[in-house]
Fold these 3 entries.
Entry 1:
Amino acid sequence: MNERHVIDHLDARQPEIVDWLKAFLRIPSVSADPSFAPHMHEARRFLLERLQRIGLSGVRLLDGGGEPAVYGEWNGAPGQPTLMVYGHYDVQPADPLDQWHTPPFEPTEVGGRLYGRGTSDVKGSTAIALEVIASFLAVQGRCPVNIKVFLEGEEETGSPSLRTIVERHRALLQADAVLSADGGRASADVPTINTGARGNAQLEVRLRTAHKDLHSGRYGGGVRNALHEMARLVASLHHPDGGVAVKGFHDGAASPTERQRADTAAFPYDEAAFFSDVGGSAHGEPGYTARERITLRPALDVNGLWGGYTGGGGKTIVPCEAQAKLTTRVVAGQDPRAVIHAVLHHLQRHCPPGCTLDVVAMNDGSPASTLAPHHPLVSAAEAVLERESGLRPIHVRLGASVPVTAIFKEMLGIDTLMFGFNLPDEDVHAPNEFFRLASIRQGTRAWTLLLAELAKHPPASFHVG
Amino acid sequence: MNERHVIDHLDARQPEIVDWLKAFLRIPSVSADPSFAPHMHEARRFLLERLQRIGLSGVRLLDGGGEPAVYGEWNGAPGQPTLMVYGHYDVQPADPLDQWHTPPFEPTEVGGRLYGRGTSDVKGSTAIALEVIASFLAVQGRCPVNIKVFLEGEEETGSPSLRTIVERHRALLQADAVLSADGGRASADVPTINTGARGNAQLEVRLRTAHKDLHSGRYGGGVRNALHEMARLVASLHHPDGGVAVKGFHDGAASPTERQRADTAAFPYDEAAFFSDVGGSAHGEPGYTARERITLRPALDVNGLWGGYTGGGGKTIVPCEAQAKLTTRVVAGQDPRAVIHAVLHHLQRHCPPGCTLDVVAMNDGSPASTLAPHHPLVSAAEAVLERESGLRPIHVRLGASVPVTAIFKEMLGIDTLMFGFNLPDEDVHAPNEFFRLASIRQGTRAWTLLLAELAKHPPASFHVG
């Protein structure tokens, strides 16, 4: 088998691949907002057609009661490993719209970058994976391994029906491992292999101090103010140095191993640039480097907070209500459910008399995922990346969460290699998200080599714990 | 002179007065919303016509570049004091409309109450003042004192052009004192005299921790979060017991006098009911009763706060920006400008490294107003209210602010007696605002007696400092 022809085919098809990706990006498949439901439907039709056209069989939707996943398979390599290729077709909302320099759903090339919502997260890398399969089938009539494509529609909303989908289609989804287009590269300079990700969980609370907003002239100075109390609650979550002050928050968190700390130190990471690029400043748990804090340690962030009058001008009220959205990041060894409950208990314990704290939303979250250092997925990726770059790949962990990896591990017993080609500076979940056009060629080469490399490992070797 | 005939005339005219008030209330004179400008014009025409009909001279608009004031005078009592009668014809917006039980601009009588926007604040009390003048002129052909009616059109938007109006018409507006229809009664059970009001000032700030919102997976735990920092700033403004923790915030605040504390204690005030009516709980500066805190002591409230993602569901970001609106209430002896600057300096001093704090809006505010206990305005009001009720009136201070009183004091050197007849529970600035119909008769009697009583004081006696 010669992957050279597949790579040549992919290289020749680059303009066509970019065009297809742009068409995919023009579909505003925002899963969080119900008013975008027709576009979610449109995105599924678009993918079903593509999977059929590239020659997959069993192309269909897998429904779990929410946004269905798009599925297709190729089973022409008996005895070879079966890889589930994971991507997601939903994207984050584009708000705040006024901060985009180009229309979020009209992909725009500027200086080697493709701007648009979903370019980096994760339609770009999803396109890479699909087009590699397409070229294998077009050039060779076969893939090196068996393939099960699984494209989720709820990644950006926390995968609420993924468990149901897996439960309903457990037999169909049997595989030896998962290759994920989500979970990208850590550096443009050195090859990196994702050996895991933090998990997460979320909580939304409402604090009330009165039945209604009160006139600040008539009540100010004599009554509790919901914003003052919410501020005090939020301030109590962290120590001034940035460490989390919630009792039980760190329970179970595995201390970073020597190998992890060494890998982290080996990673070429310009801390000053990391912060100055975004205008931010280093802050967090004492005793850890910034890079360790954001990959190896748990974190707690308030993602949104509001209360009182937020319109133009002033309004002299004592607000009666304040609301906050919080998320945790958890690491290996932690139960995300226990961690988010620790946060809730902290808030309840610190809620002052005369105030009520209600849970608006809460989920059990998903745990961190971890790939053993000598797992065949890791070995294959190391071989490919070293061949492509001439450099020894560095093991890194993702600070972000890919809950599906934990769900696949728990329900199907299989591990995931995150092999996306996006880069950390591409403003995912923010205005002006972009994907480097060069990453498409790098990604299609690497995925081609990876599928071939994985065929060298016996199926049973992927099931290592 | 016998006020009996005037009161009889007013009593006989009650249905006619209510009808006129209703016509006034049907004009949606919302000053805050430019789309209501035609109705502001309509309200002025309506008032100009009324002032002319009741026999005032020099009826005209006084323009300061915003919504003009409506003016008219009666100068037929040479040697007697000249009183400026203040009211305002603008009202608050009626939003949220869906919470009204009756149409806000169709005044509706229900069980002795007149519901509608502006009933209590302050068209009801404005009508009382005008109708008393009308009856004096109708019955006696004269008033006991000289009158200058001044009806503002921008009270609900912070009186932006009032200073210009006064500046341009300084000679016209010379008077010995102001009688204000705004600033109401503190109790339905005992007669009260407003001897002053707290002043106020406002500030809006924006805190930034980065150039853009960051992915909480990629940055969470390693970077400052604007909402955490804003929460810490806001929490630092108050001690846990509710007292203000800002250095310099209390500077200049006159300690409550023995008389003030005795008056406050004498005021029949059911603290438990005050809080349970609104579902709130007592909280504030130690060493003071709730009533003292909201009338005699300065206060600092955050009126609105927001940052990050506030839509449906979750968004895993580290917010880069948080914004807050704050207002102070200041008491006698304080410079509101110094107080609001103390708040700003506190925020700046506590703003952590790597964060920027910008002032979005700030004003110099207006100081508290105070009437000396033996001021002729107070003596006259005491005489009237004691005669009417058989009870010794209690001196109270308003917790709310009436900036016009400070402006008249500063620019014209004259004091204001707030002699409105609304009551604290009438949901001003809120849905279902109402005014008690019985207050119209009580108010027209008291204003009649007050004008007669004021005539007993020589003009110079009103200028007591």
Note: The first helix of chain A runs from residue 3 to 12.
Entry 2:
Amino acid sequence: MQDTADQNQETSLAMKFSISKDKLVEGVNHVMKAVSSRTTIPILTGIKINAGLDGITLTGSDSDVSIKAYIPLEEDDEEYVSIEKPGSIVLQARVFSDIVKKLPSDTVNIEADSRLITRITSGSSEFNLNGLDPEEYPRLPQIEEENIITIKTDLLKHLIRQTVFAVSTSETRPVLTGVNWNIQNGKLDCVATDSHRLASRSVAVESAENATYRNIVIPGKSLNELSKILDDNSGEAVSIVITESQILFKAKNLQFFSRLLDGNYPDTDRLIPNESKTDIVISTKGFLQAIDRASLLAKEERNNVVKFRTLSGEVEISSQSPELGRVFENVQAEEIKGEELKISFSAKYMMDALSKVDSQDIRISFTGAMRPFLIRPVGDDGILMLILPVRTY
Amino acid sequence: MQDTADQNQETSLAMKFSISKDKLVEGVNHVMKAVSSRTTIPILTGIKINAGLDGITLTGSDSDVSIKAYIPLEEDDEEYVSIEKPGSIVLQARVFSDIVKKLPSDTVNIEADSRLITRITSGSSEFNLNGLDPEEYPRLPQIEEENIITIKTDLLKHLIRQTVFAVSTSETRPVLTGVNWNIQNGKLDCVATDSHRLASRSVAVESAENATYRNIVIPGKSLNELSKILDDNSGEAVSIVITESQILFKAKNLQFFSRLLDGNYPDTDRLIPNESKTDIVISTKGFLQAIDRASLLAKEERNNVVKFRTLSGEVEISSQSPELGRVFENVQAEEIKGEELKISFSAKYMMDALSKVDSQDIRISFTGAMRPFLIRPVGDDGILMLILPVRTY
């Protein structure tokens, strides 16, 4: 009896629209970057679909990062979306994402009824998915759009790549798993360190005259995800809005929210040596490849340490493994100044740093075998990297 | 004192040659396919390098599969190898393979001394590796080259692809993890089955008039590796030599040895129904894609089963998951003959079979909902696939 009663209960249309399959796939791919299968909040396993009068908004979130993708009714004279009834639904992210990619036609029709049953049709294919209640989906933070900072997309991607690799992967000091941003006088300084190495970059940004932000720490994971969804070839700018606990990046048809990390980021300036005893200038690529080869015999030992020493006009890189054997390689230096030096360091840290540098040559400044040393691309003052040596000599 | 005595002991040159880096990398990549890191025989973690008067031979083996790659002194008027002293050495496969890929120059010099220390130089890079004794490396079986069977490379790759997917992955009946080959009257019949589905293909081969081989069972894993190292665009033929316990495939500059599986392969002919109650002809691609979509809601349940039924002029594919929802799709058939039918089967098995078919249409012949059914590409009599249904209707 209950069943019959249920079936007779009237179901009304809660949402209905049709959309370009390609645009839907693109939007779903973007918001999927924020969806985690390991979430403890069931509704966050879903993607929220909102059909508004001006287009479709998709939202994915793991509560640390939230991504909104917007598909307008039309753009560049192409029609992408046609709304028959505005409304919302939440659909299981994994299966919805798989389905839209495999639909047979260029157009997808989606309609949800008042019982949350969502009918997706495309060509002769018809899916009826059990939806989740959009009212249960958490609201994204309302961020006041004052004090917008603006930066070109490709510059933002570069500075993420050149700093985020140095964040800590250990939760011992959670604040070190993020990149520290400081903004003052139209300059953005980014620093990351895991306390064994450090990477920093400064760039000019557009901002209101007195816009000053200190101790903004953005999770490294968030920045990696942001970088992935930003269009590589976009000449456009990204707008950034910062609040006490959140940062919002706005690109074309995309909004990326990340929580900020609590805690005070350590003062890294005091780590940077201000004198140097041995200075070398060397080809970035030549040095990187020699380190890469030497590391092949250092991998088996857990620390992956190679030895480095200055010779006349060149440097020697070597490593050895009792089991495998030894490797030596001399690399011509452009310039060697100061004291002779023998030092050992992690090949991985050095390769991480060198692979982020676009300049042809790098300058490495040492202050003895036991002190941190600095790596700077020749001709680019905005980038500075630091590595702590390992005691072996 | 022992140390000093050792150091004064004379070491003599055991092997010396130089080789094109590209050719060495190619050869190493081929023989690495046979090297397993999980071997219990320490010498088999290495690659054997033999410098003969006519070129370099590399050997890799996991004792089930052995691969020999040969690099001649010269080919097509290009000089690839220069031998200064013939000899042999065995080097750790993983590290040697990593090293050769990353060497800086187009030429690689390799020399081993009587203590097995092997010096690899290229450009300014110098590796001294601890070698292993080549005398300890197992000898490959000597195979008498009578009764050679010949088959075109691309045909061999096709028939591997069209049968090997159906081998059993369970060791319950080891003989089913292989593909059964039978050769008679210039015809090669290949069959694989895991007892839930079957794939078979017959092709013409060149062989001596009376060459007859029965119950040859080649491990599926071996055939997969063989297929990977055979050149895709080679118009050349592969020579095949079969002995009681081994099979040898010879391609240009490559020899691939595999052991054969013991045991009697079951008679699969009796599985093939010789009558049919419902026959359909349908677009391979259209049917495959519809099954793929329907399987999206069947994945969560472990068996991945979809339902199929004949309608007037079309077939309906459907599946449902209590949690996710339902999917229906009708696909136009080219032809439907015989009784109406409702049947359920594994979407995975069907997709595995259909994705190996190059014909535009397939014919499926059913003999009722509980009996195995046959899939045959229209216009290609050499291929036959069989799937056992699942009881759900």
Note: Chain B touches chain A through 31 residues (CB under 8 Å).
Entry 3:
Amino acid sequence: MSKSIAGPEIERLIQLLARVPGLGPRSARRAALHLIKKKDQLFAPLTAAMAEAVDKVRVCSTCGNVDTSDPCTLCTDPRRDGTTIIVVEDVSDLWALERAGAMNARYHVLGGTLSPLDGIGPDDLNIKRLVGRVAEGGVSELILAVNATVEGQTTAHYITDQVAGMEVKVTRLAHGVPVGGELDYLDEGTLSAALKSRTSF
Amino acid sequence: MSKSIAGPEIERLIQLLARVPGLGPRSARRAALHLIKKKDQLFAPLTAAMAEAVDKVRVCSTCGNVDTSDPCTLCTDPRRDGTTIIVVEDVSDLWALERAGAMNARYHVLGGTLSPLDGIGPDDLNIKRLVGRVAEGGVSELILAVNATVEGQTTAHYITDQVAGMEVKVTRLAHGVPVGGELDYLDEGTLSAALKSRTSF
């Protein structure tokens, strides 16, 4: 909006809302208006929730998950099987696998994939900490739940090389994950099936 | 999410984000994760913008627009033609007309349309204040920019009756083919209206 229709505070709110994934310039205006109309039911509670979350959000120093505590809820949950680590590219993949609820293991978030063309090497990812977790012992299986892309598979191979010689079995998700597909978009059934029929890497 | 993956603050953030128009349960998770990742660039500024807006938002007691001042920016702008009032159903319609930038007039937001079936009568809308603005004088034209629905037209007729006898011209938006629109996709009502009010070329 070139000319100011509403006050600068509302204009700024719309501009920032437009940068939230899922919203664009037009839907940001609709969202802002809806928030203003539902001031007590939605706008104020959402603002409070954001203020609380923005202060408390931490990246887990063990697994790379985001949570409000470090180590995170999943790393400290005593009911989880600590002998299995599911390695994912991104927190969104972790959330997708947790929604599928197929395994009660621990996780490790890489924060991306190896991509020499983009200048992303092993040191840019959370790989050293993963190798450390395996070296500390007690881990019998690494499930490489990376995306079925070239970068994902390259990263899987690199990790396999890094833990070669250690007492750990490395597996990967079963085929069933569509080639080129992203975990976050898959249905829970497919994700469960892919986990159950995981194969040796 | 039935079980808690992230901390309760993040879960609550996701739940509230899912109620923002344009986002759903899945995109709310993606949005939350994006906010967390872009903590300094987006999450913190957006939270601050929301906190500022939620406190400052006002409904203009003159025209019903939302703004951070009352009377609003449009009602106090001395460069606007106060003799013409564009009557709209909703603030979103006001914003749409302002983006079009076709007129430099003042506005009046009704807050809905008459709908006896839904129990919405004249007293539930911002009509009395509109009649008052006309009665105060200085207004020569009311443009009824209500939607071309049964409720919109009923509301337009009601307002016309209310200001009958006052020194004010009541007009409505022209019906016709949208600019860039294809005839094939238009409804019969629009086509009939466009034919009836055809203009010389």
Note: The mean pLDDT of chain A is 88.
